[in-house]
Amino acid sequence: MKIESGFIAGIALIVSGCGIRDGAPGQPSPDSQVTRPDKVTSFAVLFGANCAGCHGGEGKGGAAQSLGDPLYLAIADDATIRRVVRNGVPGTPMPAFAQSAGGMLADQQIDAIVAGIRARWAKPDGARGVELPPYAAHDGGDAKRGAGVYSTYCASCHGMSGEGSDRASSIVDGSYLALVSNQSLRTTVIVGRPESGAPDFRGNAPGKPMSAADVSDVVAWLAAQRPEIAGQPYPNPAARTAVGVRQ
Q1: pLDDT per position as a tens digit, 126-170
Q2: Could you tell me if residue 2 is inside a domain?
Q3: Sign of torsion over alpha carbons 137, 158, 62, 195
Q4: What is the C-alpha separation between 72 and 65, in angstroms, rounded?
Q5: Which candidate, 152, 176, 188, 165, places its Cα nearest to that of 225?
Q6: pTM to 2 decimal places
Q7: Structural domain contains residue 202
C-alpha cells in the first residue's frame, strides 16, 4: 500500500505540473496563447517590422522620408499618412500595406501606426506662426519658372544644372527621379532632409522662405528632368550616337 500511495502521489504531481487539471493533456494555459499576427496592435512592433527598414528605427535616418520629423507631420495629416500606408505609392519603392490592397496589415493595425507616429513625433506648436506650403500641390507648377526658382534656392548646393557638387548630390539623376514621385519631391523640398544637412523650405536662401508657388514650380522643373523610360539615361537617338552607343 505504501508503494501504491507513493506511485499515486507521483502521478498527481506530474499531472499537476502539466496543467491537466485545467484542461486536456497538452492544452496550453490561457496565458501562453500566441496573438494572431493580424491582431498585433503595438506601435513599436508594427513600426519596427514594417516601417523602420526604410524610414529609420526612430522615424528618421533611413533611406526614405523621415516620419519622425515634426515639420513633415505639420503638413501631412492623419488621412494622408493613412492613405499612403494603406495604398502605397505606385511606381516607387513604397508598397501597399493594407490587406485590402494586397498587403499584410489589418485596418486597426494601420490606425495604430498612424496614431503612434502622431503621438510620438508630432509637435503641434512647432510650426505656429509659420506659413507652411500645403502638402499637396494645388496646380502642376511651371517648369520654366521652376528653373529660376532652382537657381535661387537649390543651385548653391546641388550645382547649377542639378548634377551635384561637393556640398550635395545630384537631384537630376535619372535613376533617382525614376524612383520618386512628384509628391515625394515636393515633400522633400518643403521638409528637407535634416539628418543629411538638407534645409527645409525656410533655409535654402537665408531670410527668404520659399512660397507655395516656388515649391510647385521647382518640383515641375525637377519632374521635367525625369527620363521618359526608367533606367534609360539617353533622352534621344542623337544623344545615344553622341556617346558612342550603337542604335
Answers
A1: 788 889 999 999 989 999 999 999 999 999 999 999 999 999 999
A2: no
A3: negative
A4: 9
A5: 176
A6: 0.78
A7: yes
